[in-house]
Amino acid sequence: MAFDTAAVKEVLDKVRAEGRAALTAPEGRRICEAYGIPTPGEGLATTEDEAVSIATDLGFPVAMKIVSPEILHKTDAGGVEIGVADADAVRQAYRSIIANAKAYDASATIVGVQVQQMLGGGQEVIIGATTDGTFGKVVAFGLGGVLVEVLKDITFRLAPVDRDQARSMLDGIQAADVLKGARGAEPVDADALAGVIERVSALVTDFPEISEVDLNPVFATGSGATAADVRILVETGEVAPRVERSPEEILASMRRLMNPSAVAVIGASNEVGKIGNSVMRNLIGGGFEGTIYPINPKADEVEGIKAYKSISDVEGDIDVAVFAIPAKFVAGAVDECGRKGVGAAVLIPSGFAETGNQELQDEVVATATKYGIRLLGPNIYGYYYTPSKLCATFCTPYDVRGGVALTSQSGGIGMAILGFSRTTKMGVSAIVGLGNKSDVDEDDLLTFFEQDDNTTCVAMHLEDLKDGRAFVDAAQRITKKKPVVVLKAGRTDLGARAASSHTGALAGDDKVYDDILRQAGVVRAPGLNEMLEYARGLPLLPTPKGENVVIITGAGGSGVLLSDACVEAGLSLMDIPPDLDESFRKFIPPFGAAGNPIDITGGEPPSTYEATIRLGLEDDRIHSLILGYWHTIVTPPMVFAKLTADVVAQARAKGIDKPVVASLAGDTEVEQACDYLFEHGIVAYPYTTEKPVAVLGAKYRWARSAGLLGQV
Amino acid sequence: MAFDTAAVKEVLDKVRAEGRAALTAPEGRRICEAYGIPTPGEGLATTEDEAVSIATDLGFPVAMKIVSPEILHKTDAGGVEIGVADADAVRQAYRSIIANAKAYDASATIVGVQVQQMLGGGQEVIIGATTDGTFGKVVAFGLGGVLVEVLKDITFRLAPVDRDQARSMLDGIQAADVLKGARGAEPVDADALAGVIERVSALVTDFPEISEVDLNPVFATGSGATAADVRILVETGEVAPRVERSPEEILASMRRLMNPSAVAVIGASNEVGKIGNSVMRNLIGGGFEGTIYPINPKADEVEGIKAYKSISDVEGDIDVAVFAIPAKFVAGAVDECGRKGVGAAVLIPSGFAETGNQELQDEVVATATKYGIRLLGPNIYGYYYTPSKLCATFCTPYDVRGGVALTSQSGGIGMAILGFSRTTKMGVSAIVGLGNKSDVDEDDLLTFFEQDDNTTCVAMHLEDLKDGRAFVDAAQRITKKKPVVVLKAGRTDLGARAASSHTGALAGDDKVYDDILRQAGVVRAPGLNEMLEYARGLPLLPTPKGENVVIITGAGGSGVLLSDACVEAGLSLMDIPPDLDESFRKFIPPFGAAGNPIDITGGEPPSTYEATIRLGLEDDRIHSLILGYWHTIVTPPMVFAKLTADVVAQARAKGIDKPVVASLAGDTEVEQACDYLFEHGIVAYPYTTEKPVAVLGAKYRWARSAGLLGQV
Fold first, then answer.
1. Are A156 and A201 in contact (CB under 8 A)?
2. Where do the ATP-grasp domain residues begin and end (chains A, B) (predicted)?
3. Which of A177, A578, B468, B521 could form a disulfide with A182 if both were Cys (CB 3.0 to 4.6 A apart)?
4. Inter-chain CB proximity A560 and B490 less than 8 Å
């Protein structure tokens, strides 16, 4: 679309030159025209006669509104009349609007009265844009009236949006059916409405000085969308451009952080219980194969390794320095690191912004920036990268290698990640503490994990984003290839309050986060446990090839609950075609239920599970299987687990790889069976019908938004 | 309220005598008048002149509608005109309505034209009543237009409702704020609106032959509520009264089932792997102290106990007969049981209604009814009652006694209950399989558990209710004293479909279930795992004395997630008063955050946890504690667990007993710490911030609806 940017610039320059934050209605209209946003026919009248003439041209009824740069709340000023029906009424309205305006603010400049075509019919919607503290320019769409104001039924996207994204916003509200012609109304012209959203998003992107746009209401009919009222606000001060690092630059520094040849430990100690001792033990105990340089002015060696008084005494190159010294010494040591050419400083110490000491943190950041050192932390437990056998942390070593990279903003959550990983033997590539995020943040890590062949899935706990736009950019790239799970803490108003007192971060409005994380292709976990379970399960499940999910269950009762869970997780139970139904029926008792769930009934031998699972895997119309197992003497838990693993392995050997998840109902032996199934690539849980389905649902959410199912 | 029931009876008798299902508008109006439900001023005109005269009396504008018993869809017939503005327009409307009606249905009886006061302004709402398959008469309330039709924003209650219950319906919709004057509108007269709901509920209760009432729209203003359109439908056939057992009768039979002196096993067997053998072994192995009579025509003894060829050969009394014989022999054996005076038959066999063999099931029920035998099942795993050391099941014995009684409609879910109980050492009073529920159902068991001192909490998995009203009656009684958790399977449309194919039960609309279960005081679990965790946790938590919840956490990150979870669970974080804040601050580092969550920070020694938890317990303005633990070297997991258990025990010794739940973030040692805490009455989970808060939330939901917090 070609826009008249010159016209917009002219209006904005004038407004800003005059030190105004708000545009007048005619200015707003001019901007809409320049960007092809339809507004009602109108004219500016400076006399009664002019008002009558304009109204006659437009056709009655008309709306009339005061135009004055000083009067923003026109209704409050008695400066609005609607439904003005004929010439006499126009005259009367003109007089009363002018009189009211003068009474409201005697010093206001009265430019005139705007006479506007009355719009009506169709559906009232709101289209807007705002400048979010985290994400920058975002566009918003909602239905007018009660739906937006009482039910908060509104949706956001990062600007700019293309036409498809804009159209997705129409489906992004709860009351979407209203736009499609619910209750016998005419469906709105979705393309015209999406066009207005797209144009607003382009406008605020092209002109960052526009801080807010409100088109409220926009009348959407079957043949178009017209903005009846336009409100535009601008920044009166300077608008600073965003500073960005190139992906190449980020990658180079992250590679050095994750695959260091030499690591120094500043504050390395022989005293058990001290952080500087724990870090040394973990580096050694974790099996790090590069060089370790303990730095300690008073020791000759630490944990059996030659120590140095200062980092400048070290002869070789140092990629990473892990800090285990009090906060007040950090800035000085970072300066030494800079002079030594260290690539990254891992700042375990606390006592910075999180305790109110922002100044000290700023000093450290300034020093690091001077030398181009990347900072991880401060206020973190450290980090793990298993392919490098690197455990640069005061926790305990972890060595189960696998595809999941996990990060956390909070140390407590980091410890929960570690404990959960160990107890479930979760294969991990990285665990990274981000803490205060004075420098390295989620987008740096996503940029690294995107190209890291050791990582197949990322899970992140975060409380805020320092640069939401950089996060979305990085997330949109990686999620095309690998799922990213995000646990956003401070989801709720109450939670957001706690986030704010904890980190000093301004927690964004959750609805903005929710919509934009989805736009970024991220799978949001509703809670900590779900984040961990998704992280554990997603790498095991192959990407499904389509939406057809089939439940095979030995317990009808589980089938019902698994169906409930499918709806909850946004999964589609396949409508089984008659020939396939017939094929399943061959294996199950006559009183079993085919259809979907397929209820093979409880008393069946292993061969029935085996035959039906095999059929489910081999029929290529089925894309995913959910198994419901019921513990019986005829088919004990481990028999079920082994036969299932075998059938799945046989199918894989034939090149058939579908997601298979299982819910096991039975006595405690089902726990061992679930462990066995997990070890064989099948996501399986005891005593729950919800969890396995939720993990499958998460895989589908990712696959859909990555465009891997052929449908978004 | 005194109603003119005679007037209603006269109308209904006439309608039913004429074989009509629908009342005319004047009939509907007469019924509304008899029950004090305001309707617009109106009159019936049979001539143009009459129409003009009525309209003039009412005041213009008016609405005009055809009155004809044959024309139900008046708008379709061109039989409605609204906004009729003056006398001429009334004449014209009269003519065209009559002409349209004749054209629509030449044979229709035209009674005349109804001339009605036009209502407007205020808020359009819908008030109705319907006859639900499960619950009988229910009343419904919602907002008119898009909100009800697109967003399904509607709420239900079992009829009759009192004024308070009716008012709770106004708050039971999402868009409740609309009624309170959102967007500058006048708040509606809530009492008037509740009055209409109450009257409609009384009407359908007094006259069960009314199958449906639709007041749509009702105009609610600041000073009243008027039903603009009334639609009433009646049953044309006979309306059978409900058959009820008295609680005393139910109790007597349930006590005999749960505390039998003698149990017969019909089909007892020595052959390992047979159900008749498993049941015998479990009765013996479970330690049942009453008499066991194996019944087997071919054995002299079974599992070392003297066997009988037939139940009639047994000399002593038999309270319970457990059936382990094929379906086809069941009816005959029940007849023998009847002649022997057996109290209850526990029907393990399948092959009845669940496989389509309803006839066989009906025959068994008829036989049992003849003798007054209560039937459990068929198609079940049996039942456990630990106070009687009774394991009458083919599963395995379970002997951890405790306060939870669990029931399940499905065998698979029963096995999950058993496995979960065993692995978590959950203290159980009963586990009961209900299967096809040919006789004994949830309300029988609730009636027993209500007065059973061994039971402090009930958890039920159900797919349908045979008699929703009996369930609500029983639930309303017991939930005043003990929490009842319900997992209703078939929650979703998809789930409901599966329920229907599984049990042949007509799964009710979930919204009706949801509202009415809440009205019954039941805590609904969203899934199987939650049902089990609530069952495990609720009996451990004392009933909170108020809404003030405080989070004490060693990890700020957990604090944020715990706050999120509180909002999710409907809990209120206490606003800490300044003096209490000051008291907490004495124990925590200066950079820790008081307020709520209270962030004691991560590096603190056991004494900090101890002092803050003690303060939280001892200050009587605080009603519940949520603890967030972060694994450190200074305060390892078991140290935290023991100190917490000690502080809680000390408080209990002083008579202070508050709910305490904990989330433990750390390495795998936190799992052992959680087990320890559970054993000491503190609900604690590793690697999740959501679960402990959800359990506390469930306790609060119950306590609120039982009126134990002084607020509903």
1. no
2. 29-65
3. A177
4. yes
